[in-house]
Amino acid sequence: MVDAAKNETLAVELRNIDKAFYGVKANSEVDFQLRRGEVHALLGENGAGKSTLCSILAGLYRPDSGEMFFEGEPANFKTPKDALAAGVGMVYQHFRLVANLTVAENLALGHPDVGIRLDQSELHKDAVQLGETYGLGVDPSARIWQLSVGEQQRVEILKLLYRNAKVLILDEPTAVLTPQEAQALFKTMRQMAEEGRSVIFVSHKLHEVKQVSDRVTVLRGGKTVGGVDTADAEPRDLARMMVGRDLELPTRDVGAPPGEAVLSVTDLRVQSDRGLEAVAGMTFDVRAGEVVGISGVSGNGQRELAYGLVGLRNPTSGTVILGGNDVTSASVLQHIKQGIAYVPQSRLGMGLAPGLTTEENLALKAFRDPPYSKSGRLVQSAFRDEGAREVEQYDIRGVRPGLPIRLLSGGNLQKALVAREVELKPIVLIARSPTRGLDVGATEAVRNLILAERERGAGVLLISEDLDELLALSDRLLVIYEGEIVGRMPVEDATAERLGLLMAGQREEASA
Amino acid sequence: MSTRRFIIEPRGLASPWLKLLVPIGSVLAALVVGAIFLALTGENPFSVYSHMVDAAFGTSRSIAETLLTATPLILTGVAAAIAFKMLVWNIGGEGQFIFGAIFAAGIAIWLGDGAPAYIALPLVVIAGGVGGAFWASIAAVPRVYLGTNEIITTLMLNFIALNFMNYLIFGSNSPWRDPEVATFPEGRPIPDATRLPEFFERLDYGIFIAIALAILAWYLLGKTRWGFQVRIVGDSADTARYAGIGVPSKILGVFLLSGAYAGFAGGLFVAGPVGALDPRSLALGLGFTGIIVAALARLNPLAIIPVAVLMGALINAGPSLQSIGVPTATVTMLQGAILIFAVAGEFLIQNRIRRPEKAPKAAPSSGEEASPA
Fold first, then answer.
1. pLDDT tens profile A312-336
2. Which of A218, A164, A174 is nearest to A196 (CA)?
3. Which of A149, A471, B95, B350 could form a disulfide with B158 if both were Cys (CB 3.0 to 4.6 A apart)?
4. For residue A8, how many other CB atoms are within 10 A of its CB?
5. Pairwise CA distance, residues A114 & A22, whole Å
6. Cα-based torsion angle of the residue sequence A99, A102, A106, A109 in order, rounded to the nearest 10 degrees
7. What is the CA angle A234-A238-A242, rounded to 5?
8. Tens digit of pLDDT per residue, chain A (512 long)?
């Protein structure tokens, strides 16, 4: 039988999977086939159901209905432990590692063969050997907190290989990597596939999917839209399958002459939480009507640079001039009043008050003045009317009276956050990874809002780890490494390779 | 495929009916538990409960007594609610209540008969608030600037306040002690000009002051710029800092306001029914009971008013139970049960429990919801 022969090559098959969260279907009638020895990309906008599908496979969630087969046999994973015992493991976006333990100890953690006594030397040998085989070299005696994000990811993959997982699910693994690191990861993925393991690769990035995967399954609105061989799929077709319409990438005129400097930073130094110099003497200008992109691998001073510029942390030295005023050691409120707007990286952790309503969140900075408040009293009608206008104008969906904003989807959260900041009509807008984790539609909306600010004449500082985002929005790029600016270039001169090398710490002659 | 029989999941937005139903259900459930307990000890629960209702609401006198007890409970309830809303765990309402009473009685005795009532009374009530805020500040300042755990500090300060009051009356010849009573030490009666007038049996105007203060708290938190900032800080301190809101000053302000409300309760109780710094009449646990009131009212200052009346009725019914041979502690047990059910009920407001869907319908839900996060 053809069917039986086909099943022979299937590592995992899902039939008609349904899964709902509070009445909302996250997966609906999903069919999914994973062959042995393939890299299978899972594409889809945020909320398309990719994470849910992966979590069902990895035993974290259990489907409401539908059938699941593992190597031809019906499978019913009750817990991630069950799944891993059968050979299905997942690398989550937020790593599940114990920071104070060593790499080797993390590998041993939860391993069924590890008894009461831990044979460290054996463990180290295994770790080194696995690392060498798969190009996942990490020092087995290093503690997790000492490792970079990329190295930690390698440990996560090693953990799965150490358990001899046959199906490895990687949830947006490249989001935290430099281009070079991503290339190395792709090599590892290909190698695992050649050995007969199957890899599920979740990504937003079409060129990565195109480069590394054998087949692609596209999810939209919780349903499978289709599965195709990667070789036959044009990026444009895949994008259309994802969003159900043609993409409209923002078009812009890079050549528009920017005005005078609205933000001047001179020899800025800011400390990290641990008291180390995280921003180690940065000097740059942002001019009116331009987007300056700060490119770098996360953890190279991005957070402290943003905090130093918006008043959340006082710089240890240097000066910051905002629209002609020295704001170096001004408070957050003074920064806001002087015309700085800030889109932080963490939406619910900092940018929004999760338990308050959308209306209230839209007024989170402007509430001090009319129309929102008059002589110390809140004007409820202003909250309602302004809120309704912004919800309409910025297309923020899912808003209901009294609904805490945390219940909106990621894209709508970000639209609300960015809407509030641009409504301040700032002189300088600072945005950290503003489209991180957003679906294509919301990404486009947020990008357009940022470009509109540039048109209006604001200076925009875009701090991001996502090269696509930086290239799509910036006029000029600054590359930072270990708290210093190691490269400057107009965006036309940027190539992925050049940026990647700079981000990885390869200095070049400062220019532009 | 799923073998689980029940699914627990967060509710998006609880309906107003549920928010009303859960507290009422908590009280009913506690009464049922109490009834079982009474039946097991050989009492007839129905006759005990009807006796309690009688004792609390049967005569105009008992109604007045119920409202008299409700008066401080409204304020200690609001005190707890203000703080808890902002995740400041001030459980020192008892101590702040006592210090409110000490300050109020102190001012009243110091003023003597010299001041007219329209000056003396407001001063006494305000002194109560100042006393409560002062006692709260001892825990609040280290909490805000050094990060001490206010649960521990406020709890310990309750005992210090209680012992300090006992010292003033039983252990020293302080101005608070009545010099004319030699047999058993008592608090010195405060002058008539500093007493709240009675208008219905023993009920004085303090109940209206308490209700007005509860409404004021609701207004401050819900309708003012300050209250908005407080709510932001209570929701997420990092977000507040990001929005340029001074977090320490807001936490300090809320903590002191909470203490002031507990202190008002002490002040009104001294200026109302007690009329002296009398430990036996003041150390009734009204500050602690305020926590139950706040929890049952789901921290809503307006809902606290009826809940406080209910609790007042329960407390007043207690002593009368002895006349039919039932221990007064029955009431304490009922209070505890109500708190447990109210806290458990809060879980039902936040989450829903349902049976898994056996056969999911083919038609997708109407699509009013945005895509899942």
1. 999 999 999 999 999 999 999 999 9
2. A164
3. B95
4. 11
5. 39
6. -110
7. 170
8. 344 444 567 899 999 999 887 667 788 899 999 999 999 999 876 667 888 899 999 998 889 999 999 988 888 888 888 898 899 999 988 888 998 888 888 888 878 777 677 778 888 888 888 888 888 888 888 888 888 788 889 999 999 998 889 999 998 888 777 778 889 999 999 999 999 999 999 987 777 888 899 999 988 878 888 888 888 887 777 777 776 655 444 455 655 667 899 999 999 999 987 678 889 999 999 999 999 999 887 778 899 999 999 999 999 999 999 999 999 999 999 999 999 999 999 888 899 999 999 999 999 999 999 899 998 999 999 999 999 999 999 999 888 888 899 888 888 999 999 999 999 999 999 999 999 878 788 888 999 999 999 999 999 999 998 777 888 899 999 999 889 999 999 888 887 667 767 876 666 654 44
Interface contact B371-A47, CB threshold 8 A:
yes
Place of tokens 């050989």: B42
Token pair of A430 as six digits: 């600072």
Contact A64 B372 (CB under 8 A): no
DSSP state of B192: G
User: What is the distance between the alpha carbons of residues A53 and A18, in angstroms, rounded to a whole number?
Assistant: 10
Q: Which residue of B has its CA nearest to A407?
A: B12
AA identity, residue A326 = D
Residue B244 distance to chain A (closest CA, Å): 4
Side chain identity at residue A162, one-letter code: Y
DSSP string, A283-350: EEEEETT-EEEEE--TTSSHHHHHHHHHTSS--SEEEEEETTEE-TT--HHHHHHHTEEEE-S-IIII
The distance of Cα A287 from the centroid of its chain, to the nearest Å, equals 28
Q: How many CB atoms lie within 10 A of CB B254?
A: 25
3-class DSSP state of A17: strand
**How many angstroms separate the CA atoms of B157 and B91, rounded?**
10
d(CA B166, CA A286) in angstroms, rounded, equals 67
Using an 8 Å Cβ cutoff, are A75 and A69 in contact? yes
Helix, strand, coil shares of chain B as percentages rounded to 5? 70, 5, 25
Distance CA A195, CA B95 (A): 71
Per-residue DSSP letter, A230: G
What does DSSP say about strands A198-203 and A73-74: parallel, antiparallel, or unpaired?
unpaired
**Chain A residue numbers touching B360 (CB-CB < 8 A):** 18, 20, 64-65
Contacts with B356 from chain A: Cβ below 8 Å: 64
Write down the residue that tokens 């085989």 correspond to: A133
**Which secondary-structure segment (H or E) carries A19?**
strand A10-21
pLDDT tens, position by position, B177-233: 988 877 888 899 999 989 999 999 899 999 999 999 999 999 999 999 999 999 999
Q: What is the reported pTM?
A: 0.74
In DSSP terms, A342 is beta-bridged to: A430
Upstream peptide bond of A74 is cis (omega within 30 degrees of 0): no
Q: What is the dihedral of CA A494, A498, A499, A502, to 10 degrees?
A: -140
- Write down the domain spans for chain B: 69-306
- The answer to whether B238 contacts chain A (CB < 8 Å) is yes
Whether the predicted interface score ipTM is above 0.95: no
Q: Which two tokens stand for residue B220?
A: 């401050």
